[in-house]
Known about the structure:
The protein is α/β, with parallel strands linked by helices. The chain has 6 helices and 7 strands; from the N terminus they run αβββαβααβαβαβ. A hairpin with a 4-residue loop joins β2 (68-69) and β3 (74-75). α5 packs across α6 (182-190). The model has no long low-confidence stretch (mean pLDDT 92).
Amino acid sequence: IPQWNAHTPPATCNNIQIREWLREITHWRAERRIRVGYDDSLYREPSLLWTQSSFVQPQMMIHDRTFYDPSTRRYTVDRYLEDVHQRYGGIESVLVWHTYSNIGIDSRNQYDLFQDLPGGVAAVKQMVDDFNKNNVRVFFPIMLWDQGTHDQRVPDAEAIARELASVGADGINGDTLEGMPRTFLKASDTLQHPLALE
């Protein structure tokens, strides 16, 4: 029976086919590097070397009850880390998703929702510090599609670079983006707070 959209049953590649595939993918990769003017200096940047060993990064919703206790109004980083350690052996970084499910219900934009997190910026900074003390890096998302709320009056790259520098966060996740525009790198460099971009 044909699989999926294949006209023949799946088969194991032979050595000649494997060599051909490797030759083609190597050529493709070299061509793409030339087209984008690839430069590996960011991969050698000392302040970002930690990214090369950050393999496990969950996306965590801000209302996760192992992460936030509404009765004490505190972020419970240790409890969250204990939970993820028990479930899958721990993490090296975390993507803190703070916009859903509130974005769009009023005129607040993604930056307003960040400012409105429980405890404000001071508590978020402490939360980031608590993760960092446990050798876990912290990412927040950028939502360039956030156009229906209100204008921040500064470019998104500048707004999020300032926001994340204010709490000591480590990186930006480009929600729905194929890649991160260079303006985000420039904005974090300007603030002398290097951010990993994913």
